[in-house]
Each structure stands twice: as C-alpha cells, then as structure tokens.
Design brief:
The protein is mainly α. Helices cover about 70% and strands about 0% of the residues.
C-alpha cells in the first residue's frame, strides 16, 4: 500500500481592512450634518453630496467588503448606515423635486427613534470590541434619540444640543478610523483604541 503525500493549502487574507473607509465616511458626514443641526451652517449641497457619496455609497461598499471578510458586525453596521444616509437624502430631495410631500415631524421622530433602537443593539455588540468604537455607537444612539425627541416635542433646543453631540460622535468615528490606519501603517499603537477585555474574541470590524 502506497502512502500518498498530503498537501495542505493555507489561505492568507491579504485584503485591506475596510473599517476605516466606512468609519471615515460615517464620521465626516455626521460632523457636517450636525453642524447644521447645531445651527452653525445651513442645509445645502455639501451635506447632500457627502451624504450620497461618502456617508452613503462609501459605507455600503465598506459593508460589502466586510462581508467578503466574513464580518457580520461590520457588514450590518456599514451597509445599514450607508443606506440610512441615502434614505435621509431621499427624504429631503423628494419634496424638493415635487415627487412627494415634505415629511411630518412626527414621522421623522419615529424614523430617527427606530435608528436609535437599531444603534442601541449595535452598541451592545461593540462591548466585545474596543472603547473607541463603543463611544461612537453610544453617542450615536443618544444622538438618534435626541433628534427624535426634538422632532417629537418641537423643542429646537433639543435638536441643537443633539447637533453638538453629533459633532462629538462624528469626530470620535474619525478618530477610530485614523487610529486603525496609523496603527497599521506604523505597526504599533500610534492612537490607542483601548481594547475591551473580550475584544480578542470579537470580529475584526473594530480592531
């Protein structure tokens, strides 16, 4: 009886980490929109364009790339928030194009509250990643609920306060994105992300 040699093939994942792309698209668009919510700038073409292309399409692409890596959390987060931005821009543009009536404050309150619930669940998942990503999702959940409360009550002060919180949330996402890029490029911790105790078992979306 002749023994046949066993050949083993080792697959090495050499694809890039898509998380910084998704986080940067989310973070920059969130900052710009919430400068408007805080009453600092007007809602205009810059916010709409960034919402469509960077907050929207770039995040959807990042989500698809996370799917290729087998990362359920990253796929769900980036794809969902990418389509959030696209749907939000559609809500603004449809009335302007004469295709639909402007959405009521009550409907927008429910819309934002639902996204708040989704984000709260996603925040629970970040407890197995790192403190930087936890902060992003915690402040984002509070942002959605704050904006929903502002629309539900008609209190402009709630919307303005939520706008400033949104600037902090967006800036924290930019920080996490740059930390992942710089830490990988330099092969050491340039910007800390403070991994959680269970982070070693977590998906790679928030390394």
């Amino acid at each position: 009886m002749t023994d046949h040699p066993v050949t083993r093939t080792v697959m090495i994942d050499r694809t890039a980490n898509p998380a910084p792309l998704g986080l940067m698209g989310f973070g920059m668009t969130t900052i710009l929109l919430n400068l408007h919510n805080a009453g600092i700038i007007a809602l205009g073409g810059a916010i709409l364009a960034l919402g469509i292309f960077y907050g929207g399409l770039a995040q959807v692409l990042a989500g698809l790339m996370e799917w290729r890596k087998g990362n359920t959390f990253g796929t769900t987060a980036f794809t969902s928030y990418g389509f959030f931005w696209l749907s939000l821009v559609a809500i603004w543009l449809l009335p302007a194009l004469g295709l639909w009536e402007a959405e009521s404050k009550q409907a927008m309150a429910f819309y934002l509250a639902l996204w708040g619930v989704f984000t709260a669940y996603m925040f629970v998942a970040t407890l197995r990643t790192n403190r930087g990503l936890q902060f992003v999702f915690l402040t984002l959940a509070l942002l959605f609920f704050g904006l929903a409360a502002g629309d539900a009550t008609g209190m402009a002060s709630l919307t303005v306060a939520s706008g400033y919180l949104g600037i902090v949330c967006g800036a924290s996402a930019v920080y996490v994105a740059m930390a992942e890029v710089l830490n990988e490029c330099y092969g050491r911790t340039v910007l800390p992300l403070w991994p959680a105790a269970a982070g070693k078992d977590a998906p790679a979306a928030a390394e």
